[in-house]
Amino acid sequence: MKLPELKEKLKSKYIVRVVAGVLTIALVGTGIGATAVFAEKNSTAVTAEADSTTGSNKDADDIADKLMDSVSLKDNDADKDESVYLISDANGNVNKTIVVDHLKNKDKKDTLEDASNLSDIENVKGKEKFTQSGDKLTWQAGGKDIYYQGTATAEPPVTQKVTYYLDGKEISPEDLAGKSGKVKIRFDYTNTTSYTETVNGEKQTVSVPFAAITGLVLGDGFENIEVTNGKAEVSDSSSVVLGYALPGLKDSLGIKDKDLDGDVNIPEYMEMTADVKNFSMPAAMTFVVNASDYVSTDGIDTSDLDDMINDLKDASTQLQDGSKTLAEGTDTLADGLSTLQSKLGTFASGVGTLQSGLKVYTDGVSTLSGGLNTLGNSTGALVSGADKLNSGAGQLASGSATLKDGLKSYTDGASQLNAGLNQLNDNTGSLATGVTSLNDGAKTLSDGINAANKGAAGVSAGVAQLKTSIDTAKTGADSLAAGAKQVDDGIGQLEQSLSDMPETIKDNINKSLEPLNELNVGTLFKTLRYIDTDKITADNVSKAADAAVNHAEDIIKALTGMHDADPSATYSKIVVGLSQGKGAVSVYSAVNQSVTDSASTVKALKDGSAKVSEGASSLDAGLGQLADGASKLSSGASDLATGTTKLATGATELQTGTQSLTDKLPELTNGITSLVNGSNELVKNNDTLNAGAALLNAGASQLSAGTRSLMNSVPTLTSGIKQLVDGSNTLVANNAQLNSGASQLADGTNQIVSGVDQLTTGSKTLADGAHTLADGMVQFNEEGINKILDAYNGDLKPFTDKLQAVIDAGEEYQTYSAIADGQTGSVKFIYKLASIDAKADSDK
Q1: Cβ neighbours of 803 (radius 10 Å)
Q2: Nearest-angstrom CA–CA distance, 212 and 837
Q3: Checking phi first, is residue 71 left (phi over 0); if not, alpha (psi -120 to 50) or beta?
Q4: What is the β-pairing status of strands 825-833 and 80-88?
Q5: Which of 32, 123, 534, 743 sits CB 3.0–4.6 Å from 71 for a disulfide?
Q6: Pair 658, 431: CB distance under 8 Å
Q7: CA of 818: how far to CAs of 217, 321, 752, 815, in Å?
Q8: Highest mean pLDDT: which of 21-25, 266-270, 332-336?
Q9: Using CA atoms, how far apart are residues 300 and 307, in angstroms rounded to an integer?
Q10: 147 φ/ψ angles, rounded to the nearest 5 degrees
């Protein structure tokens, strides 16, 4: 393509139109599949629902077949296939949504995990059961695939509106049935999805790339059918209209209508017109599919276009740089040829000089041959001298090795002495510090001893106070033991009193019940079989009292039979006596329980008293031991005072010694410094001495090795001299040929000079062409390649970023209802519109 044509293509946004067209063709022409739409057709619930709304099942099958013939299906490996059936009226308003899900059991598992927000879930192709927890479903699959359906109320991602016109005026589908005239039906689709994707660091808000494909089965009497964004298939038996749209795609890609030409269109609606008699529409349905589920996006990668543009830019830069380098190279070639031309003149002159020099050389070779013959006759004297040289070199090497070892021992000792002296010098400061610290420590020790003396006196006084306190505590311990004895005696008396109390009360109760026994109450109750004894006692008074209250009438009758003058009064006495006795028995029970509880308390008190007594004895024994310890402490305090006095005397002597050491430190330090300085001078030349000895030894060794090698080489040297003599004789024999070759070299040089003159002329022509090429490449880069890059970055780059965002959004949308974590899904929507039947009595 020539540059003017390229400019024109870029000016009309050719690349944008081409990419948009390719995308449209990919979504509509080769990718959208409908084969799986009726995979669940055996689901009787779905089929019945569809048939009841859309009319003849045969018409629905026909339109489905037409849709499947017009599109192809990409292999689908999703874990969950979802088909959403939207039962709609003729205007596209959804009345009911039925969802059929197919769970693929690829690994033949016993259970399948799923997620769903559907209602009224039922298995439509088997008897497998499921359990549900929130949105989570667990199917008992038994290695099989699962087909189930349910209902939903959520709005679909694409809505459709169907509008009908008759002779240019809008009309309802009910009124249009059976009418004749010019009919127009328009399907408008709205994409309600919105995704924000990040591409190349930029956020792009796009819609999921849904494709809507609508099919209509028309009744008889349709002629002159025209379809916008679709096609019509007319036969003798039926007329079918197929249309498609890509709702929301143009906005997602940022494409305007002016960016597209007649060959490319991204429709948002489909429309048909026809001349009709007795209008009817037996079936209509729309498939809405996610293009990413049915179009392979493996080969769509907008970064490839970035790489191609970058490669184009790099290649043009390299081409421009290469043409520049070529031009510079031709200039260098021309300059080099000019220099070569000048040098060849000098070379030709040198060849003449060489020819003369060779004559001198051949004469010299003849002279050399004579001298070498003389050298060959002197090899006997050379052998004798080499033998003497070898003997002397061996003696020199042995002596230098001995010298080297001796110097090494000397310098090692000097270095060690120097190191020790330097370390001693370095420590003189520490020594001074240590002596000072020792002096200070002696003074501190003396102060501490004085304090210890005072402490010893304090200890003696404290011991005396401790003895006094121990005596006081011992007296208190004796009093405590006596008190514990009195408490123990009192507890014994209390224990005896508590033991006697219940029996005393019981005796008193029995005495109070004696009047009742005089009335023969016990005999009466025994006769009536209310108690088992003929005597009322504290042990059975409660039972008797209850019997008297519960069986009053029987008791009064029995008293009457006993000829009691006043049975009621007698009964009253019985009741009063028993009530008093029952109250006394309650008191007895409470006291008895209290005695039992008190016995436990008394026991605890008794145990505590015993422990107090035991503690008092232990305290007395401890105080005795403490008194013994106080005596020993008093004796130790006396010994401490004696020891501190002696320690004070030693501390004074230590202070005197450390002060004397401090006074002598300057003299010691000066002596060490002088010794160190001398040692440093001594060591300073160690490296030089060792290095010299090493060099001497190495030289002697090399000399000895060389003389040995010389001795070993004397036979070879002798042989070489002979060969040299023979060679010189050969050189002399070749002198004539060498002089002849020099003459031939001179002739060839003259021919080279002539060829270089011709090459120089050609290089100038080459240089001119290279410069022309370099200038042309600069112009091509500026006017061609850079314009392409500007067009890409200005128009196409934002478009490709949005295209990548659309592809990503399509990949993310996988389900309408729900899907389990880690699973993949694909979803399709089937809008089944209500049929419109012709009216028998409609206007023709």
Answers
A1: 25
A2: 25
A3: beta
A4: parallel
A5: 32
A6: no
A7: 33, 59, 89, 6
A8: 266-270
A9: 14
A10: -120, 120
Picking from 590, 570, 596, the residue whose alpha carbon sits closest to that of residue 515 is 570
Asked if 64 and 37 count as a contact pair (C-beta separation under 8 A), the reply is yes
The average confidence (pLDDT) of the chain is 75
Say whether pLDDT at 308 is over 80. Answer: no
Whether pLDDT at 43 is above 90: no
Nearest Cα to Cα of residue 286 among 100, 95, 158:
158
What six digits make up the tokens of 139?
């199917």
Q: pLDDT digit string (tens) for 141-172?
A: 999 999 999 999 999 999 999 999 999 999 99
**Structural contact between residues 829 and 193, judged by C-beta atoms closer than 8 angstroms:** no
- 125: three-class secondary structure by DSSP: coil
| pLDDT beyond 60 at 737 | yes
Reduced to 3 states (helix: H, G, I; strand: E, B; else coil), residue 326 is: helix
Each as own residue / partner, the long-range contacts of residues 642-647 (CB below 8 Å, 24 or more positions apart, any chain) are: 644/449, 644/452, 644/453, 644/456, 645/453, 647/445, 647/449, 647/452
Cβ neighbours of residue 664 closer than 8 Å, sequence gap 6 or more = none
* This model's pTM is above 0.85: no
| Nearest C-alpha neighbor of 13 from the set 800, 801, 798, 796 | 796
How many CA atoms does the CB half-sphere of 389 hold within 13 Å? Answer: 16
Q: How far, in Å, CA of 185 to CA of 166, rounded? A: 9
For residue 176, what are its two tokens? 């249009």
* Alpha helices (runs of H) in 519-566, residue ranges in sequence order: 521-527, 541-550, 552-561
Rounded Cα distance, 69 and 231, in Å: 13
681: which 2 tokens? 């001078």
**Integer Cα distance of 225 and 274 in angstroms:** 4
Are 591 and 480 a contacting pair, CB within 8 Å?
A: no
Residue 92 has pLDDT above 90, yes or no: yes
At position 4, the amino acid (one-letter code) is P
